[in-house]
């Protein structure tokens, strides 16, 4: 038993070392994103990025747990954008391809700014929309007309769009390919339960789910523990 624990611990150390030594290129990151990272002055993946990016690129559902400031946002944004670079132009586009749900408007703005800067640096054409609950129904409708590739929002705002018929449940079921819950521990806590439940029944089984958190413990996904 003690020997097994020791082996596991050595294995974890080796895995940690490997993750630390890898470059973004070795993780499989696209050349456009590599150039964007270079321009942003980001040279090497953080440990959580080293482990999460290849798994997300493989299409796995992932729960990533790493402390605040460890780079979880890029850990999901890089593979998400890379996936969107290769989406067929002629795909049926009824609703957003990817949802990034966050607990607060402030975080939603931060994520939106990060996505826009990457998209701009990569010089790709992707429609990225950020919604917030203070927007009027007409503004929400206008933002979602010609569905975005990425929708960044709080669950409360998504629930409002669903109940107001601005987002159609059937369209989400047909179009959604990636769902990110950033700060998943907060999103899955009591305060957001109703809004999350309004949305989750429409997430198709084929949708890749990425749960990012500083403190969560989930069991139904491929779980990554932080090395930080
Ligand atoms: N590989 C990297 N090298 C250097 N800086 C990085 C790297 N990845 C991310 N950063 C920067 O580190 C900072 C923190 O990253 P980020 O906000 O993604 O952390 P986080 O784990 O999501 O934190 P939180 O739990 O608060 O959401 C940001 O300024 C980001 O640009």
From TrEMBL:
InterPro entries: DEAD/DEAH_box_helicase_dom, DEAD_box_RNA_helicase, Helicase_ATP-bd, P-loop_NTPase, RNA_helicase_DEAD_Q_motif
Top-level taxon in the UniProt lineage: Eukaryota
Ranges of Basic and acidic residues composition bias in the record: 1-20
Residue ranges annotated as motif Q motif: 22-50
Molecular function in Gene Ontology: ATP binding; hydrolase activity; RNA binding; RNA helicase activity
Region annotated Disordered, chain positions: 1-23
Entry-linked SMART domains: DEXDc (SM00487)
Reaction catalyzed: ATP + H2O = ADP + phosphate + H(+)
Domain (Helicase ATP-binding): residue spans on this chain: 53-228
Keyword Protein transport: no
Domain DEAD-box RNA helicase Q: 22-50
Gene Ontology, cellular component aspect: cytosol
Record-listed E.C. numbers: 3.6.4.13
Keywords: ATP-binding, Helicase, Hydrolase, Nucleotide-binding, RNA-binding
Short name of one Pfam family: DEAD
Keyword ATP-binding belongs to the record: yes
Record's protein name: RNA helicase
Source species of the chain: Phaseolus vulgaris
